[in-house]
Amino acid sequence: MRDLHHSRKFHGGLKLDGHKQESTAEMVRTLPLPRRLLLPLASQAGRAAIPVVKAGDRVLGHQEVARPGNDRSCSLHAPTSATVIGIQCLPVPHPGGLSGDCLVLEPDGREEFAQSMPSLDPANLDMAGLVQRVRDAGIAGLGGAVFPTAHKLATAASREGLTLVVNGAECEPYISCDDMLMREQAYEILLGTRILLNSLGAATAIVAIERDKHQALECMQAAIERLGDERIRLEQIFTIYPAGGERQLVQVLSGKEVPENGLPTDIGYLCQNVATLLAIYHAVVHGRPLVSRITTVTGSGIARPGNFLALLGTPLSVLTEAAGGYTDRASRLIMGGPMMGIALASDEVPVVKASNCVLVLGADEARSSGEQMPCIRCGECEQVCPAQLQPQELYWRIQGKDIAGADELGLGACIECGCCDLVCPSHIPLVQHYRYAKARARTARTQREQSEVARQRFETRKQRLEKEATRRKQRLEEKRKTRTPGEQAPKAIKGEIDAILARAESKRQDGKQGDGTS
Predict the structure, then answer these.
(1) What is the pTM of this model?
(2) Do 279 and 294 touch, CB atoms closer than 8 A?
């Protein structure tokens, strides 16, 4: 087990107070079966899933209830046996507090499950078979980005000589779900790691864990020794936020920077969260789809903080109630950590694949949005930016409605970590401006792409019509030459036409004479 030094850290970042709750020493708790499950059809990373059931249907646990809309969305499965109530527009976890279409299920309490997908042989599973199984199981990245894992693996399949990075770095305060997972299921995580190693044909897997997770480090090291796979090694990394981001983690481990518009696979690394690898293990060996996840419920506004194994679709109110309910300090509800989390208006939104934490803060811990003052160009935001951007310049471009200019300055490389927000003495919500500008930039790019497609379609149609007109003209010329060869052809045709007209006139005159006689 190696310990990486500060000399290999990424630029910027923050040393944050750990806020590791005492409850993390406990086992993961289970939840009572909720009265209803809400499965949002739209994901954070792709197009909405398409339902394959209708109101009134009874479904079994692990049965697919919605299939992927495209390669960037995931299928959904019923967490338990239930009756389909229908599709309703309900509040969902969203930065803008929006609602979305949810498939509503009413559990029947029978806990009946559909026949599992057949178990696959991990030792002889090729990449195509693994990608298909991961897609069938509806697995997405459980570290927070929830990007469809099947698409990520399919992209990496064409790369050779990749190093697998097992991401156990959970550096944002309060969150401890991955920490607990590594304590309790370290060996199963490594079995999932070995499955991916074999399918990738990779020579090395690096398990990266922060040095302050002492129990997790011990459990993972013991599991590595038990597994006895020399390709897997453990490395401790320093606890600086946001070292858990895959771009930053690759830089910590290798000293190489991921290109701004590239991926870690471009420089030879594939990152997977520990919970994602555990889900891959269950999908391959047990044929089990992704229907649950561990969620941390914590904060000064929670009576008994802890980690809970929650079925996807469970309302957050069920989790907070299981954690002893709210305290008198409860003021703000957040899904995620205090840096990158989403503020929620209600605890009736469901647990989704991205729900790694439910955080309840007190009024004195949540900064009011009314304290904003003008930017003084102090440069503090630039010093802590892990993406090596110039946040103040991005802010000024966005304020001037120069979205294209902000895009040129690297707006797309912003990981929305919130470091600039935290250090800004003017309390400017910089990340909110960046999210808005990135959405505008995506819309503009989409419009440009659509315009370019329309232009190409028009040019193609124009060329096709010109070619058809040219071919038609050529055919007419060839017919003229075939019918009456020589220069006298027009005169011959005119003579024939005149003869036909003369005969028609003669018949007409004969008809008139016949009428007069009668």
Answers:
(1) 0.83
(2) no
